[in-house]
């Protein structure tokens, strides 16, 4: 496996994990906090999501340089980071197939 392939695979995993962490934060941790008064889950999931969010943005820029993406695709990647299912779409649409 080449270095470029490993970079793509790493970004693919970061994309999936970031999207899953965002969904867990929105649909599990936040309801636990506001419905059942269990705020500690937001702290745990929120920290994990924050780290993955930053890695996703850095990885998106890395892919922009490595794969020769246009600025338009880079902006789509960055904007997808604030949508619950956005990174799943980016992973499917813009990354080369394994």
Describe the structure.
- Helix 1 (3-36) packs antiparallel against helix 4 and helix 3 (71-80) runs antiparallel to helix 4.
- By secondary structure, the chain is an all-alpha fold.
- The longest helix has 34 residues, at 3-36.
- The chain has one domain (3-94).
- 22% of the residues are buried.
- It is 83% helix and 0% strand.
Outline the fold blueprint.
Blueprint (H helix, E strand, L loop, with lengths): L2 H34 L3 H28 L3 H10 L5 H9 L4
Helix pairs in contact: 1-2, 1-4, 2-3, 3-4
Subcellular location: Cell membrane
Keywords: Cell membrane, Membrane, Transmembrane, Transmembrane helix
Pfam families: DUF3817
Q: In brief, what are we looking at here?
A:
By secondary structure, this protein is mainly α.
Question: N- to C-terminal separation?
Answer: 11 Å
SS strand fraction: under 5%
Query: What composes the largest sheet?
Result: none
What proportion of the residues is helical, as a percent range?
A: over 70%
Which short descriptors sum up this protein?
98 residues; mainly alpha
């Amino acid at each position: 496996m080449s270095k470029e392939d490993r970079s793509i695979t790493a970004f693919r995993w970061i994309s999936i994990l970031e999207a899953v962490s965002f969904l867990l934060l929105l649909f599990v941790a936040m309801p636990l906090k506001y419905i059942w008064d269990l705020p500690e889950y937001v702290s745990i999931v929120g920290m994990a999501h924050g780290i993955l969010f930053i890695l996703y943005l850095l990885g998106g820029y890395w892919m922009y340089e490595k794969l020769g993406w246009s600025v338009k695709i880079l902006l789509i990647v960055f904007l997808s980071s604030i949508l619950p299912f956005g990174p799943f779409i980016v992973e499917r649409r813009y990354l080369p197939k394994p």
